[in-house]
Design a protein that fits this description.
Helix content is 22%, strand content 24%. The chain is an alpha+beta fold and 323 residues long.
């Protein structure tokens, strides 16, 4: 059963931003992105190559992230937009992924160790390597980290054993992750170590049934929708869109459970909520504020944003205080 983390107003982790450009609709923007993706298939910015170039650190000093602290990992991640318009092909070409409350992070697994870093490149944790020694190449995953349960939820794959997945479509990347963890159950069975769990996904053919059927018991922060043909593109893209739990019934016109149906007090409606949030973000940026300081609804969490703001990593007061 989906457990929902509710909020009376947008929080840091609910930040998903629009892409610069002039389009008459979000649908038109999506078509443009797909066309550009095909045109630039072989010359796309390769986030995987950037992660390959990060120097490998020895096990004994892996906790020192000096040479990584200034790298803006957030700029290498694929970022989402709000779902302002329901995609016309939602049921045919989109996957939905439930997202737990947590901290967006980059996970880099090398020969002996696996390290987690915040969007601004600061060290979060280390554990034993994800893949067995002897495997060639680095593995880089796009994840959400829950410190309380020492669990890393895998959103997407950027590199796997040295192979870049950046120019692979969502459908293949999701299939790859699912098959690798099924073929190698020891990736999940890691005694006395951080636990890795690929997030479940389902085709949005029947969104209501998909939400009910997904094996997901974590506190729900929101739902991401991935276009099947989207490559892993650094930056904000309309080919990945986001809804908060209480928006789903309104936007998609489906039935949801009682928790997801409960809206914040004074909820103005889906588009008004988004507009209000963007306005607050613009005002804070204008005042030179580098962080988004919004109420976390008394959840007891001090989680920072899963997502970043238009290429600028969220500045956190203490990136190691996560729970």
């Amino acid at each position: 059963m989906l457990s929902v983390e509710r909020s009376n107003e947008p929080t840091q982790r609910q930040a998903l931003y629009k892409t610069k450009g002039t389009f008459r609709s979000q649908e038109e923007k999506r078509k443009h992105f797909l066309e550009e993706q095909k045109r630039k298939r072989n010359v796309n910015f390769d986030a995987g190559r950037n992660f390959e170039e990060i120097p490998e650190q020895r096990h004994e000093d892996a906790h020192l992230s000096g040479n990584l602290s200034k790298k803006k990992f957030g700029k290498m991640l694929m970022q989402s937009e709000w779902m302002e318009e329901v995609p016309g092909d939602l049921m045919e070409k989109w996957y939905l992924v439930p997202c737990p409350v947590g901290k967006r992070c980059i996970v880099i697994s090398e020969t002996k160790i696996c390290r987690g870093f915040s969007l601004s490149g600061k060290f979060l944790f280390q554990t034993k390597a994800l893949l067995k020694e002897g495997k060639v190449g680095r593995t880089v995953l796009d994840c959400i980290y829950n410190r309380e349960t020492s669990t890393i939820f895998i959103l997407d794959v950027i590199l796997w054993a040295g192979y870049s997945m950046v120019n692979c479509e969502t459908e293949f990347r999701f299939y790859w992750l699912k098959s690798k963890f099924e073929e190698t159950p020891e990736l999940l069975e890691r005694p006395n170590a951080y636990k890795f769990h690929p997030l479940p996904h389902a085709l949005a053919t029947d969104t209501e049934t998909a939400l009910e059927s997904l094996d997901f018991t974590e506190k729900l922060d929101g739902v991401l929708f991935y276009h099947k043909e989207a490559h892993y593109t650094a930056g904000v893209t309309p080919l990945v869109v986001w809804l908060l739990p209480f928006m789903i019934a309104e936007v998609l016109g489906i039935s949801v459970n009682e928790e997801m149906a409960q809206q914040p007090e004074s909820y103005p409606g889906h588009l008004e909520y988004i507009a209000e949030y963007k306005k607050k973000q613009k005002e804070k940026r204008r005042r030179g504020r580098k962080s988004v300081e919004m109420d976390t609804s008394g959840s007891g969490h001090d989680e920072s944003s899963i997502f970043e703001e238009s290429g600028e990593p969220v500045q956190e007061e203490d990136e190691l205080e996560l729970g």
